[in-house]
Amino acid sequence: MKNIRNFCIIAHIDHGKSTLADRMLEMTGTVDKRDMENQVLDDMDLEKERGITIKSHAIQMKYSRKSKVESQKQEEYTLNLIDTPGHVDFSYEVSRSIAACEGALLVVDASQGVQAQTISNLYMALEHDLEIIPVMNKCDMESAMPDMVEDEIIDLLGCKREDILRCSAKTGDGVAAILDAIVERVPAPQGDPDAPLQCLVFDSVFNSFRGIIGYYKVVNGTMRAGDRVRFFKTGKEYDADEIGVLKLDMQPTQEISAGNVGYIISGIKTSSEVKVGDTITHVACPCDKAIAGFEEVKPMVFAGVYPIEAEDYEDLRASLEKLQLNDASLTFTPESSVALGFGFRCGFLGLLHMEIIQERLDRAFDMDVITTVPNVSYRVFTKDGVEHEVHNPAGMPDLTLIDHIEEPFIRASIITTSNYIGPIMTLCLGKRGELIKQEYISGNRIELYFDLPLGEIVIDFYDKLKSISKGYASFDYHPNGFRQSDLVKLDILLNGEQVDALSTLTHRSNAVDFGRRMCEKLKELLPRQQFDIAIQAAIGAKIIARETVKQVRKDVLAKCYGGDVSRKRKLLEKQKRGKKRMKQIGNVEVPQKAFLAVLKLD
Length: 602
Prior knowledge:
Layout: E1 4-11, H1 17-27, H2 45-50, E2 57-66, E3 74-83, H3 91-99, E4 103-109, H4 116-127, E5 131-137, H5 146-157, E6 165-166, H6 175-185, E7 198-207, E8 211-220, E9 222-224, E10 228-231, E11 237-239, E12 242-246, E13 250-253, E14 255-257, E15 261-268, E16 279-282, E17 301-307, H7 313-326, E18 331-337, E19 341-348, H8 351-365, E20 369-371, E21 378-382, E22 387-390, E23 402-417, H9 421-430, E24 434-442, E25 445-453, H10 454-457, H11 461-468, E26 474-485, E27 487-494, E28 497-498, E29 504-507, H12 508-525, E30 533-539, E31 542-549, H13 565-585, H14 592-597
Parallel strand pairs: 1-3, 1-4, 4-5, 5-6
Antiparallel strand pairs: 2-3, 7-8, 7-16, 8-15, 9-14, 10-11, 10-16, 12-13, 12-15, 17-19, 17-20, 18-19, 21-22, 21-23, 23-25, 23-26, 24-25, 27-28, 27-29, 27-30, 30-31
């Protein structure tokens, strides 16, 4: 065990985590030169296309270095690396990776400096008492400011200047020193190989041939191939048909002892039987208690996901269950809608997360789905004192019964340069934000703290922040309780019929403007029919905005040349009656573009 090191790489998005992991795999000979490619651990097409890590990836490396005790003897170390995502929407992946490690490489871009997610991930790692090794990447770039960024890291960590390692993950400079630092600074895992078995499940994947594969860290004891094991939370028992370590592919072994990271295949077919954060133990000699796992994930954004064809409902359920194995932060419950039929109410950690899930459903499972307008959960208090949690505006109690509504707030941390403070403050105050404090970090970099309603930032806040700061502002947030607000339910009616999938909860001050823009947008997107389509925005019984999509008409007067006007009127009246009858039985199809357009109203 003294030669095992478990560590993860944490950083803000685009600071070079995956590139650094590539160089380490190259230097330790874990990946052959011919198999080497950029982002070698990112095995999803989506990750390579977008250049971001979506899922954390575990891999084992062997690293030899001269022993300090006997100078000529080569000592071999086992390094278990977990590469993590950097985007705020995938922070749950990071928290699970941290729980399986004893140390972390904190990577900071030498040209960007410390950013919001750097701080957030650092605090997460410190809560788990991880050994932090600060690494400054991209030191070879012309725009690098190594001395200034070093000062920022020292302010943040309180470390010595010589503790900070400089490297360039692209060229490989300084990577050997990082591998040595991991061996010297990261503590070996603690645990007893002879104690009763205790393994922490930190991830799982679905394989259509082999069932569900669980990834775990052995905290105590030893697991051997063929052992009879039990999962604590579900109480289910299985045979460990195959166990092994995670190289670039899975490598079977006969046993995995305390401190190591591995996988287990036991022919599990039902996704609900493997829970991330569960403990695996032996049936014959079980441990006393489960390992304290991770906190349950709290979704930030809710949206309805419906199959386009009603008969695909069960397929969609199966697809979501398989996706949930690969992404434990996805939550879903069944729901139905008048306009869209049966579907699921899904909880996501943010808009990018929602977009990625939609894309993965399409690519991996060939599921065409309609996603409704994203919203957050509200607390509605009725006059008889009962509290209701509402994820969907359609589930709101009657307006006459509501006493007051509370909406979730977040504490947002925005790090930017002083040139952009004005526009950023205008943006946050326009979203009903409240400035809490501002602190200068170093030079002209400043950190702003705002309390903001989650409903206001859920749709386009991050995109706007990036554009007004030319990409120089970084953003992180955490929940900060509920507050009472003057919210109203805005309904969209098509020909007097309410479309519940387009209903939203919005602040009274924004309602009229939002309703008007929504009607205008829908007028552009709805295809013309043989009859007029009235698009109305309403609060309760009060119509606040209206647009009309004009009907497609045949020129019935074309054959009338001259003659009495009553003949023309008779033809027009006949057409009018036909249109009226059509309107009564005709229904309006709302295209998927209309649901997505609400996100891009600005």
